[in-house]
Specification:
The structure holds 2 protein chains of 2 kinds.
Chain A lengths: L1 E5 L9 H5 L4 E3 L5 E3 L2 E2 L4 H10 L5 E3 L2
Antiparallel strand pairs in A: 1-4, 1-5, 2-3
Chain B lengths: L4 E4 L3 H12 L6 E4 L23 H4 L11 E3 L4 E5 L4 E4 L4 E3 L2 E4 L3 E3 L12 E2 L4 H10 L5 E5 L3 H12 L3 E5 L7 H4 L1 H13 L3 E3 L4 E5 L6 E4 L4 E3 L2 E4 L3 E3 L15 E2 L5 E3 L5 E7 L4 E4 L7 E3 L4 H14 L12 E6 L2 E7 L6 E7 L5 E7 L2 E8 L2 H6 L6
Parallel strand pairs in B: 1-2, 1-7, 2-3, 7-20, 9-16, 10-11, 10-16, 11-12, 18-21
Antiparallel strand pairs in B: 4-5, 5-6, 8-17, 13-14, 14-15, 19-20, 21-22, 23-24, 24-27, 25-26, 26-27
The chains are: A alpha+beta, B alpha/beta.
């Protein structure tokens, strides 16, 4: 399993991560980011890609 | 000994290239040369939230992945020339760097005003961390800030400076700020929102000279007036950093011309086998739009092009390279998000929401959607992204 942390003080809810790791990130009905704090190892590459595309560089894998 | 993959440019494009080469299985040596003294950092906050706070490398540095541990970073070093026929570049110390493959990631630098009084102090640009540190120190409450240029950078600095309590005037030749990208209606609305915050626009106007003894005290305009100025910010576009490549068989007429695999092109139209281009400086065709090669100065392009280069280099590229440009901008509480190439549009229309509140605009060329941009309404904006895939 991987553990994911989003710095919600930085996050501006641009939702770019949603396209890279849709199983982990989504925008809710209020356009706010929601995410699962843990994911299968198979999601690692997708989450790494989400880290790359986050405009605010707010996403980290904390193991 | 195997010569390294040599990446010239240590900003996001250089970092993402090194990461992608590792990710796609290249295990040989990688060297990255950059002229700034800093490890790669994220530039967009330099005109926005970080500029409103204490600007530091720590606040904007990209996290260094484990895969970067054995990359040779040569920072604070400018590359002066390249000899592509002999696979070497020469840096400002006179050191010669042979390479097995070269990745050009030298990006852009700000264009500066060309004025007679150009030696005056108090002039700023916004591109590097050092630029932002210097500008931040001058953005004191009550300071009279004149921003030349009403593109995204100019407007972001205007919003940040206004939020910090500065008096802000924006001087630009256009009719509305950001009009070339956003189109008339949305640009006019953004102008209204800036004016509601107290920003003064001097549009359809250009700078003729700077006034002052040793520091800038005023900005003279072509209508004969002079705007008092304590802090001058020049946000009038950029130059490509390609001088070091001159004398080689390349097309440097605008950036570095590359093919859809990001291989640099010779003047006869054949690609170099071992020279690639990534990021802002790359001019490449994107079949999602047409055959025309374009530079795309959007934040996601360094990452996209780096990935493509690594795939091509490791022979894992499949199909055409059709990146979807994306940008965002934050000005006060207005958070704009866009996909596509808005500037291609011949027709722009409101497709959702209310222009005085949150709204979404569609951008069309010959009736086909080429871009979408919204203030807020992220889910709606995102729902149109598939139109460009």
């Amino acid at each position: 399993m991987i553990k994911i942390d989003v710095d919600m003080a930085k996050c501006q809810h641009y939702g770019q991560c949603v396209f890279e790791a849709p199983n982990v990130f989504e925008l809710n009905n209020d356009d706010k980011l929601e995410y699962t704090a843990t994911a299968e190892d198979s999601e690692r590459a997708n989450v790494e890609a989400a880290i790359d595309v986050c405009p605010m560089q707010a996403i980290r894998i904390v193991e | 000994m195997t010569h390294p993959v040599l990446i010239v440019g240590a900003s996001m494009g250089g970092l993402r290239t090194a990461e992608a080469f590792r990710r796609f299985g290249y295990t040989g040596p990688i060297t990255v040369i950059g002229d700034e003294p800093y490890a790669p950092y994220n530039r967009p906050p330099l005109s926005k939230e970080v500029l409103a706070e204490t600007v530091s490398h720590e606040a904007v540095a990209f996290e260094q992945r484990e895969s970067m541990a054995d990359v040779n970073w040569v920072l604070g070093t400018r590359v002066e020339s390249a000899d592509l026929d002999h696979n070497v570049v020469t840096d400002s110390n006179g050191d010669i760097h042979p390479y097995s493959a070269l990745v050009i990631a030298t990006g852009l630098r700000p264009r500066r005003l060309s004025v007679a009084n150009g030696e005056l102090r108090g002039r700023h640009a916004v591109r590097t961390l050092d630029d932002a540190i210097a500008l931040r120190a001058d953005l004191k409450p009550g300071a009279r800030v004149v921003i030349v240029g009403a593109g995204f950078i100019g407007c972001e600095v205007a919003a940040t400076a206004r939020t910090l309590g500065c008096e802000v005037t924006v001087v630009a030749p256009g009719i509305h700020p950001m009009q070339r990208s956003l189109g008339t209606e949305l640009a006019a609305e953004m102008q209204r929102r800036h004016e509601a915050q107290g920003v003064v626009f001097r549009l359809k106007t250009t700078v003729t000279d700077l006034v002052g003894e040793s520091v800038v005290e005023g900005v003279a305009l072509d209508d004969g007036t002079t705007v008092p100025c304590d802090v001058l910010v020049e946000a009038i576009g950029s130059h490509e950093n390609t001088e070091w490549l001159e004398g080689n068989d390349l097309d440097l007429s605008a950036g570095v011309l590359a093919n859809n695999d990001l291989r640099a092109m010779r003047q006869n139209g054949d690609p170099w086998n071992d020279v690639f281009v990534v990021g802002d400086v790359a001019r490449f065709p994107n079949p999602a739009y047409d055959d025309d090669a374009r530079q795309i100065e959007h934040w996601n392009i360094p990452t996209e092009t780096a990935k493509r280069v690594a795939q091509v280099f490791t022979e894992q590229a499949q199909g055409e390279f059709r990146p979807i440009p994306s940008f965002w901008t934050d000005q006060y509480d207005n958070h704009l998000l866009a996909y596509g190439v808005l500037a291609l549009a011949d027709h722009v229309k409101l497709i959702d929401g209310d222009i005085t509140a949150d709204c979404v605009f569609g951008y069309y060329r010959l009736g086909k959607m080429v871009g979408v941009c919204g203030i807020g309404m992220r889910s709606i904006v995102q729902s149109y992204r598939t139109n460009f895939v």
